[in-house]
Amino acid sequence: MSVADLFKSQLKVVSVGHSAFAENLAAAGVETVSVAWRPPLDADPQAMSKLRERRAEIAAANKAALEKMLRARPFLTGMDLAGETIPGMRKNLLLHAGPPVAWEKMCGPMRGAATGALIYEGLAKNAEEVQALAASGAVEFSPCHAHGAAGPVAGIISFSMPVFIVENLETGRKCFAAQSEGPGKTLRYGVYAPDVLERLRWLEKTLYPALKAALALSGPLDLKAIIAQALQMGDELHSRHRAATSLLYRALAPSIIRTCVPETAACALEFINGNDQFFSPIAMSAQKAVMDAARGTEKSSIVVAMAKNGVDMGIQLAGTGEQWFTGPSPVPDAKFSGGYGRADANPDIGDSAIAETCGLGAFAAAAAPATVQFIGGTAAAMISRTLEMREICAGENPDWKIPQLEFGGTPAGIDILRAIEKGILPVMHTGAAHRESGIGQIGAGVSAAPPEPFIKAAQALAREL
Amino acid sequence: MASETDAKPAGCGGAAASAFSLEGAVAKLSGANLALIAVPGRFAAAAADSALDNGLHVMLFSGGVSLSDETALKRKALDKGLLLMGPECGAAVINGSPLGLANAVSRGSVGIVSSSASGLQEIASIISNEGQGISQALCSGGRDMTREAGGKMFAAGLRALAQDERTAVIVLVSKPPQGEVLEAVLEQAREAAKPIVAVFPGGDADALEEEGIHAAATLEEAALKAAALARYQAAAAPENHDGKSLALAREANRYMMALSAAGERLRQAQTEIKRIAFDEARKLHKYQKYLRGLYSGGAFCREAQLLLEPLLGGVWSNAPVSPAFRMKDPLRSQENTALDMGAGAPGGDKPHPAIDFSARLRRIAEEARDPAAAVILFDLRLGPGANPHPLEDLLPAVKRARETARCEERDILFITSVTGTAQDPQNRAAVIAGLREAGVIVMPSNAQAASLAGHIIRISGGI
After folding, report:
1. Chain A contact set for B17 (CB, 8 A)
2. Stated pTM of the model
3. Chain-chain contact of A13 with B2 (C-beta, under 8 angstroms)
4. A208, B9, B23, B128: which has the highest count of C-beta atoms within 10 A?
5. Does the interface predicted TM-score (ipTM) exceed 0.85?
6. d(CA B462, CA B439)
7. pLDDT (tens digit per residue) in A168-218
8. Cα separation, B216 vs B199, whole angstroms
């Protein structure tokens, strides 16, 4: 608009910073939108200027990455034992959540979970033996993400654990996740008490064969469709899976009954019914399948993984291969239970932020007002959270709609350049683990990503260009 | 973007709607045409650049922007036919709406291009208080009129006003431009078929008069002349513009009378100032020899120095008119001092002294402890964006300062002028009444306040 036109038009102001100026204008009847300005992240200026110069190429790459994400068709195709199906799986290998971390550096909950898994595998009898075994270097550790898997909280997957197999039918690529253990004391939160190990054996010996047979009979289940429906029913597919679990129950129940003896079928269905998070690992595999579709898109600044090992948070970009960019993992702002507080909480841990990476979880918070009852906050804040996260995404997912936003799509494709320039870091829903091993979950809430991974990723992407 | 559930209906005199980013705001506000940017200095250039990319005119309130960034931003803006006012554009009036620190002024036929916010405010307020009004008031930012920046946005503003149908009279306000910068302004001025009043204090008035530009020595003089010309233009019948020589001669006569009436008012004011100075100087002891000017506005501080120098000799300042009088330590006043309290914020990040009085209030207390101080001179800028409670903040400090002085059996004089209008939320008349009740001498303009202070010191100091 030329200056002459400005003088003849109605003044309409975008006010950035110092909000009193915006309020004065609005009070005087001038149409004004006030931008809640935040300083950009303190990224390397040289890297940023290079990335800005090559913005058109990056935008084209991001568009391609986004299309691959949106075309992905994740289906639950079956189950198998980790040792039989996960590439590179070995008896002495434990997969864990987040970026790589050595035994010596592991946080309490992850050590607890690893201890439980090694006892479960029969490689050690107790914590002392685990300590000796791990210190000897005889046990290897590798991130779930390096093996097509995603693990909640500590995210430990060992050789004998059964896993769901989710396949992107568009590309044939498979993703994996272990079964949900249900509420209460669990291995994923670092508890390795006898009853926890007993439940792991039940999952392997009883539930897994039942589900595997049922899935073989029912055929592949369309997870993109289940997620789309669950969003309409109040799930955000990270902290809340009640709707998706119910939908899965409806889909699987006839096949479970047809393939199992009645008592086994009843136990399996009771377990699913009593575990609102049953769908969680399946959702994570589906979310990972969607994000893996975008992996390897050269020049793309889209985040394909955000994951935490309880010490560090790491991210991976579509355009920078398998490299992890890390920073200190934040302690969650959580609603704590059992008399615990923030001081007791471990820094955030788990691969479940694959939900946010995929535009669900905190990014789809608007769809799930009921989650405020266990993660805290207000329903209005949940809507605001989605709108804010939309600012750092390359697009929207037209297949996953949010009723509360007039059926607008979930945000899709976190773009590190947008995050850096707008100074908006991804927010993630999460559970809070006690910092010591053996105690378990002490709350649920949100955490904000640290800036370092995004700053480092920008530098690496600039080098790639 | 799909829905915007947090949106409130805009433009209904309520609260501003909010967005998380400039792009988000542009998507939300259909037809957005101006970005008002007030962020910490080191982020200001990027924010302004992004606003230009979104096709918005920019008012850049922030300071702390490098010359190279300013040059690049202005080049981009001019290529796109957009205004980039600033950096350090403290005030502007667009389509009648005051922006930033600007006052609520009447709409009218006088257009202003200023390199300083306080200069713009003083002129716009006086014109409004004279019963005339402002078509547009643009502020280029102080550095625009330096040789390095080349006066490009100032000249673009002048061109825009020359072409604007609503603008009948143009006022130019700046430190005296030099060389090519002056030439660029004069070139635009020649093309404008409208009366122009220029106040380039300390500059060459004759050079302007030769170009047919009415030169003014003070902001007040420029405002009164512009108001007179606006009044004249409004009264001039259109048939008198038809080229008939007799009618033209009559018109020219009326035009000159309008201007000389403004001059006469200022001469009368000078007589009155000398009378007041004589009365007030009697309240002072012989050892009280100096004035201390505490300004929030750069143009006010500069104007005061230019008016005081002929009366008192050099005036110390952190923004001196004469380089020899640069203060050694801006935190310690010496002899006669005029301090620009809005200058020299390195990142442009400290609160503006017209909004946050705290630095000035501390300084008032310090000056009052100096037995040699006779007069504390200050500016007071009203407006929707300025301090909403100036009396509540200021008067207790004035009272305490006087008590400090009285303990040592001396008095201290406070002199000010109030830049603002009856439409400003603080209400100029109410503020003036409050100040007078507290014993503060309130003059009609910054120039008159400085002039009065100068005459008082002359008498008291036996100059």
Report:
1. 32-34
2. 0.80
3. no
4. B128
5. yes
6. 24
7. 999 999 999 999 999 889 999 999 999 999 999 999 999 999 999 999 999
8. 5
